[in-house]
Design brief:
It contains ten helices and no strands. It is mainly α. Helix 2 crosses helix 6 (114-134) and helix 9 (181-190) crosses helix 10 (194-217). It starts with 6 loop residues before the first helix and ends with a helix.
């Protein structure tokens, strides 16, 4: 008998976590991005303090306009008037205002607060720890188990080297793909984003192929 949850219970749990995270934070769920921000927390705190000065889009637009006027001057001569290509009419102010209103707010594309992503990572750790303890399966180990020893290596030094190189490749891949399995597979596919669907198909297909090679061929 397996002590793991059935697949449908795990699917419901992951769906609830993803939906609640999106509703509470108004951001997509992503673990690799959270790790990157938490590891560089000093830089992120500086960026957050800068963002706090411009929480209002109108205030940000006014500050940018003031900085532009200070740098380039406030003259009203013809050189400051944007040129319109021949045969095209000058856009009406109402059209410009309607276009600006249709743009997404700047606050909607800002990352989640740093403390939120730190809480997400701590919750993953604590959740796994509590689940292992309550199920009676928690114990400290210094290897990857018999499957890893039989398929890859039983030498501790080689194991550490392989895991280190694998971790670097995983980190490089998640940054190259713009997200990890949680960001693309859960949040991205849940929102039907084409790039996430393609990315999820690629890394799950690669995982299936590598597993087949390890277990059936090698």
């Amino acid at each position: 008998m397996s002590t793991y949850w059935p697949w449908w219970a795990g699917a419901i749990g992951l769906a609830l976590v993803t939906i609640n995270h999106t509703l509470i934070t108004d951001r997509s769920l992503g673990v690799s991005a959270a790790w990157d921000r938490v590891l560089h927390w000093r830089r992120e705190r500086r960026l957050e303090r800068m963002d706090e000065e411009f929480t209002d889009d109108q205030a940000l637009a006014e500050a940018l306009a003031a900085a532009t006027a200070e740098h380039f001057g406030t003259g009203t001569d013809a050189s400051n008037v944007p040129q319109v290509p021949y045969g095209e009419s000058q856009p009406l102010e109402a059209d410009a205002e309607s276009t600006a209103s249709e743009r997404p707010a700047a606050t909607s594309v800002r990352p989640a607060p740093l403390v939120t992503q730190a809480a997400l990572l701590m919750s993953i750790f604590l959740g796994g720890f509590i689940a292992a303890v309550t199920s009676g399966r928690f114990h400290l180990r210094y290897d990857m188990g018999p499957g890893f020893r039989n398929l890859v290596t039983a030498d501790p030094t080689t194991m550490i080297a392989v895991l280190f190189v694998g971790g670097v490749l995983v980190g490089f891949g998640t940054r190259l793909a713009g997200g990890c399995s949680s960001g693309h597979g859960l949040s991205g596919c849940g929102r039907l984003r084409p790039v996430s669907i393609v990315a999820t198909a690629v890394f799950f297909g690669t995982a299936v192929a590598v597993s087949f090679l390890l277990w059936k061929v090698i």
